[in-house]
Amino acid sequence: MNPLILEKKQSDFSGLRILSFESRRAFEMESLIRRHQGDPVVTPSMREIPFEANREALEFARKVIDGKVDVLVLLTGVGTRFLVEVIERSFSRDEILKALSKTTLVARGPKPVSVLRELGIVPTLVAPSPNTWREVLMTLDQKHPVKDKKVFVQEYGIPNQDFIRGLKQRGAHVSRVPVYRWALPEDVSPLRKAILEVSDGRVDILLLTNATQIHHVLQVASEEGLEISFREALERVVVGSIGPVVSENLKEIGLPCDFEAEKSVMGLFVQEAALKCPDLLLAKRSSYEKKSKHVLVQSYPVRPYDVQASAESPFLKACRCEPVPYTPVWIMRQAGRYMKEYRDLRARVSFLELCKNSDLACEVTVTAQEKLGVDAAILFSDILLILEPMGVGLEYTKGEGPYIHRPVRTSEDVDNLLDSNPNESMFFVMEAIRKIRTALNSKVPLIGFAGAPFTVVSYLVEGKGSQNYLHTKALMFRDPDTWNRLMEKMTDATIRYVNAQVSAGVQAVQIFDSWIGCLSPSDYREYVFPHMKRLFSSLSVEVPAVHFGTGTQALLELMRDSGGTVIGLDWRVDLGDARSRLGNAPVQGNLDPLVLLSDLKTIRSKVKKVLDQNNGRPGHIFNLGHGVLPQTPFENVVALVDCVHELSQR
User: Fold this and answer.
1) 612 belongs to the catalytic site
2) How large a percentage of the chain has pLDDT more than 70?
């Protein structure tokens, strides 16, 4: 996006990113955008498929030749040409043209008129500008009423039910003549990429020239799990329409239409857009920012910070098994619904928008650390965001959690997974890290994180949360080669993602293996251990890594041997026993999250019990055994942090 748009009025696109879903005239559209100084992204959204065995067209031909057609409405130029070509296969052109010349021909606009003239035919009626179906009905009402007439409508793509209904209400006997249909492109990956760019905020202006483009884009966006984020992103993108038909379709499906061309001609449309859209973009984004003032407490710049200041923090010293003045504590799901500030924010923005807006992610991360007084902040994000660039259709459905539209369950599915550079596909995460690191107290470490390959792959295979991991284990046991290829891909992606976070500025990372407890030790050793070993051996040595799982009582030694600086423990494990089993490895944990729903006396007692199990040994980071629950009273979380600090004073 060109920042100059925010500073002065422009008379052309001036480097703004212009997206078009034009198909048949893609090259022309790209040239027009460049001519007006725009940065074009032209991605075909549809292809025309003629009906080869078109019974309706042949039946129409027989009737028009027999004089049984009173009115023929021609809606498109391409459709008019296709119609003649189809019926020419069974009837001579002279016969067809003679019959058409005796029929009342109604052209919706200049394109059907142009084709008819090529054929040597003059239309009986031409609907005036803006050439919508409404003008066709108005023209018929004024000049050729259709009551009791046999009216045939040459259709294109999606049938216009409103037009058909309008003809029938006027007493016409209506027959449809579908000439061709619109289909998605054979390769939808460019369309998928364009939708992702809109969702990620990398498009300034969207120019639409056909109503079917809109429906196809939303279809693919829905399949990709991007429809919500795509719709939200259009609040900050200028949407231009070539004419009333496109505008009506936008409004019908709840999308904005910020600009409609005065003339429905592509060259004039782009020229007018270049003149008007930059100012519209400025106004639209200013309006969006004003509406968001209640959300964006402030914009967080990125500035240099003291890299070494946090090195001697209690958290990082505990990771190194060094003596600390008190046991450091932080909490999983540190920024969450138990905090009023977070609830207020989530009432106004979606979870995905919160994750992808670096200022918002920075705000909730820093606010949680400061209000709780914990010894480390953890990046606000989600373990499944890594899947979105892979093309599987990740969606966060309200009340239902994450959902994968295209689960991966076969070798071919694995082959179809897309690779990506996290600095590009997850740029918002890296941007948030840099802003958090600037805004956070320099002495407080920032923890980055990712999901472990097994847990993320399980979501990917199941398609959603699971109780028994049926599809995951079936793939693992039935087809170990495909399983290992999938785990290798996920491991590679996780390595790149975590190392990118380290480069962006986190001082520690946590790998969440929340579902790993469903495996036996032997299955873990065979199907997971090699991948975790490679993961941890490939992570940056600059920062400590916490290896966390739930239900891991039987897996602790295997987890330690697979890697990680610190082993995270859930509440089902006795911390003292775990320390004996793990030797010198630092540990993190492990209060039952439900304890925080009790009274302050009980919380204090349970905190003391965990600290006593550690028995003052260095290398202990206090945490819950899993994330804090939304129902938890905020004051109880604050009390937990205070108790840990007070009771562990050396």
Assistant:
1) no
2) 94
